[in-house]
Design a protein that fits this description.
By secondary structure, the chain is α/β, with parallel strands linked by helices. The protein has 2 helices and 9 strands; from the N terminus they run ββββββββαβα. It has a single domain, classed as Glutamate synthase, alpha subunit, C-terminal domain (Pectate Lyase C-like, 3 Solenoid). Strands 1-2-3-4-5-6-7-9-8 form a 9-stranded mixed beta sheet, covered by helices on one side. The radius of gyration is 16 Å and the shape is globular. The protein starts with 6 loop residues before the first strand and ends with a helix.
């Protein structure tokens, strides 16, 4: 009988396209630097964390796991994702949640362009005061459960003190979310979060020094 092993990989510097693509869950990738396009492409599990900025289509075709971005993200974040979670602490480019079919997206900074075009499932959290076109999808105020979930998502990128009153929940135009419906994190999220927090603390200590 095999034994499952989780491997943590620390990478610094710059990465090209497809960082962590097709990750199935046994690997956690943490970056200090930046990554180009399609980080976490078609992942079904595991973690990709970028302490920096990413290019276009972070989390495209994601079906499980988490993508955590401490900087900004390019256009089409969460393109056609079906599950898992993408959290961006900084600003995000146009076309976020385009074709989203499941999972969660939390965009904690400002957004650009249209959000939720062709969305058929899942949920995205965006700032309601940001200059973004939400007409392609349906927006709802956050109930208590959704606000709690947003704070949890924000904690994954150490975004403490997020004012949930500043956010709306974006859902498919034709479907209203049940009250309090907020998917839970992947099964290994607590273990992965501890791993991420440990790394980020080291980064912050280096920056302070």
């Amino acid at each position: 009988m095999g034994v499952e092993t989780r491997v943590g990989v620390f990478i610094t510097g710059e990465a090209g396209d497809f960082l962590g693509a097709f990750n199935a869950g046994a690997l956690i990738l943490i970056r200090r630097g930046s990554a180009k396009d399609y980080p976490g492409y078609a992942m079904s599990g595991g973690e990709v964390g970028v302490v920096g900025s990413v290019g276009r289509a972070a989390g495209a075709f994601l079906s499980g796991g988490r993508i955590l971005v401490w900087g900004s993200a390019g256009p089409y974040t969460g393109l056609r994702m079906r599950g898992g979670a993408v959290v961006v602490k900084g600003d995000a480019g146009e076309g976020a949640a385009c074709g989203q079919a499941g999972g969660e997206i939390a965009l904690l900074g400002k957004c650009a362009g249209t959000v939720g075009a062709g969305m058929v499932g899942g949920v995205a959290f965006v700032r309601k005061e940001t200059a973004v076109d939400l007409s392609a999808a349906r927006t709802e105020p956050l109930d208590a459960a959704a606000a709690t979930r947003l704070r949890e998502l924000a904690s994954w990128v150490k975004a403490a003190g997020v004012n949930t009153a500043d956010f709306v929940r974006v859902v498919p135009a034709a479907v209203k979310s049940p009250a309090g419906a907020a998917p839970r994190a992947p099964g290994a999220a607590d273990e992965a979060k501890a791993f991420v927090d440990s790394f980020v603390s080291r980064v912050e200590e280096d920056d302070d020094g």
